[in-house]
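hi!! sorry for the late reply, been swamped w classes. u asked for the two structures so here they r. pasted raw, havent cleaned anything up. first the sequence of the first protein and right below it the tokens
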Amino acid sequence: MIKRTILFLLGVFSIHVAIAQSQPSALNGDSIFYQMKKVADWQWKSLETVGWKNPKKDWTSGAMYTGMMAWAKLANDETYYHKLIKVGEDNKWEIGKYRHFADDYCVGQLYSQLYTIYKDPKYIADFKALADTITQLPHTEGLEWKKNIHLREWAWCDALFMGPPALGYLTEATGDSKYLDKSVQLWNKTTEYLYDKDENLYYRDSRYFNKKEKNGTKVFWSRGNGWVIGGLVRILSVLPKNHPERKKLEGLFIDMSAKLAAIQQPDGSWHASLLDPESYPSKETSGTGFICYAMAWGINNGLISEKKYLPVVSKAWLALTTSVHPDGKLGFVQAQGAAPDKVGYEDTDVYGVGAFLLAGSEMLPLYLNDKKNVFIKTVYNGTAASKQQVVELKWTTITKKIKNANQKKLVVRDGATHALIPSTMVYKGKTPQSIKFTVDISSGTNRFFEISTK
């Protein structure tokens, strides 16, 4: 009996070791890139063959586009931008039916971001007309969940991902600060109403103020708070450093990050209910994706400590990548709703894919910048045309980053795919002066190059 028990335990241990060894590394540049590509390609194929479950102007689709834009920026393949432009054309570059409903102008994020590359005025004409109206309205109504308030105000926490970034990116596109300023004003209004300062988390809406989970805790929804912190970093990404509200919003981000890090589950995810994870014991990838994205952005932009938060986002990214099916389908995405609910491996939806791709877009530079004895060069083509670019880096710049650099052993690789890039050393006599390499960069593409020794 004892012998059989020992053999059984050894078998279980061996299985767990095998599973652990089969799991991808949380931080691996080419793995991050190809996981993103696999998930993005599966989603586009599904939409093109199975069809769209919701309208192309819907919030679910709008949230997906945020991740698809982030992926298109890394892919160095304009095909992905063409797919997004086709969406805009199918929508006639219009927002949804209820013009002051944040869900119905989430798609404005896509239009504004495409405009910054392609500069076609029709992309933003309809959304800008709405935004001009929004900036003029007094927004004095209370936010209690009644009388269809959600059609006029940001009365639910999800709205903070849908509305504020749309206005913020319109400021980035047009240079007119009124849209961003209005988004910050309305952000603060919603925060005053829905943010619990004791828990550093947001209620979904006023209906949840007095609700309790099975264990007696307050009801705080993972994806709901993912919407918030994801929307927050998108606002911060376009908010000027000297904006009078920036420090306040940065403080909010830091407080939320600390709380979320403290309640991360052992599997690396955040379950559907943040304070009662056992009620919904499966991991949930849409909330986890947005939280991972936001925290990785915070590390990359110096708002939170890499030492403290890198382990958090690494575990979160592993929780996400191990939810990807072999064909690229992302599982464990909680269905559309307004509160915590059950979720399983087969459950997916487009907004979960958007969250996954956003997370990957920040995990890739985080991984690269964390590497030791490596110089990372970022090259961005923000124009509407592909171009070939010669990159030249001074030798003295490289040696400040790479200890004991040997010019004869220096190599250049694509930071995303790890592919070798042909390069040449420039000398003055026998003294190295610089390294040069030529790269092709598609429109709207951000490429990372890794210079290191063999």
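now the second protein. again sequence first, tokens right under
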Amino acid sequence: MSNQTVTMNLPPKQAGYAQSMAIIGMLFFVFGFVTWLNGTLIQFFRIVCELNVAQALLVTMAFFMAYFFLSIPSSFILNKTGFKNGMALGLLIIAVGSLIFIPAANARSFGIFLTGLFVQGAGLALLQTASNPYASIIGPKESAAKRISILGICNKSAGALAPLILSSIVLKGAEKLEADIAAAVDATQKTALLDSLASRVIAPYLVIAIILTILAFLLKRSSLPEIDTNAEDATTAAATQGKTSVFQFPQLVLGVLCIFTYVGVEVMAGDVIGQYGTSLGMSVDDSKYFTSFTLVAMLVGYVIGIATIPKYLSGKKGLQISAVLGVVFTVAAYFNTGASAVTFIALLGLANALMWPAIFPMAIDGLGRFTKIGSALLVMGIVGGGVLPQVYAGMFNEHSMFNFLYSASIDFRHAFLYCMVPCYLYILFYALVGDKIGKKA
């Protein structure tokens, strides 16, 4: 892409388009790696902290609730710090959250682990609030979905690697360990086994904290340029004329709910797939890798997006196709068992791949001076990744915080179906008409 197509003016000695994309790509890799460790942690904490399914799924709740509480403050922080400094600060906050895993492991305290996850989510909220609009605005609007698809490859490549790396360390020989823990008749012996297993998480999270600190320093010193999200062209100025609140943009408000449902189904497909597999009778040693299968399917989806958008497909059309595929794969998983069911859940990664790249640019299109706060609201919608797994658990597990949904007649397969299909249907609605509501023809 030539410099003439870039929509921002770059001062001398600042990074050009390609270098800026490379830096943002590195950030997408970071929050992909950190986010998709959760699938492994759900199974790890279930053993180490002796949890039921609903309790283990609090991992996603603690992590994604940070987005809900801290996305709006993140927009105000970015107004003070600028994008580059805000991103560096986000990396440091994630590093702090990673360090909290050390005392949590030593105390084998699920509550402290959840605190560390919440702090990590806070750092990621700041990173995402800055990096997503940056990626949308740094080049032409028509290719925004393609740019975010490229960055998505960075994100999901890290996501595919993360559970493989962490599982090989913390869940090595998990099935035998579970059997040994269950067979331990002496409380001291059982505690020693659990403490030994908990300590496995210390080294990887210490390494993560060190790497993130180094990256924050390098980002701070980089030549990444600032962007002006308050600048408005004639079309955008006309669209925002007389608007005093971000809530006067229906496509954004509906887009926040769309992000909520999308991230919910993405986390279900990636983080819950391991639990789904064990519920089907598969061993932990096998199911601990299932998250990577979903992420590989997402990578395939991103490659398809890069090849087809905007040359053959618009982001909007890609979102419509993706939502239909989501319904088809979910229903297919319900009507299958064993490896076939898990395969269809993994294929949801393919259906989900183009959703974020399409929804985010569609929702912030035409916001002008409201872009920062609009981006923050969209990032708040990521909390769906914490809520939907708990709703799912609440449908068949009386220990969930959503146990009012509990029914003895609903098993995990029905619960998965009832959670996923309505979400995909709403995404289809947004792709068809939701983004047009409130816009002038």
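hope this helps!! also noticed smth abt the second:
The two ends are 31 Å apart (CA to CA).
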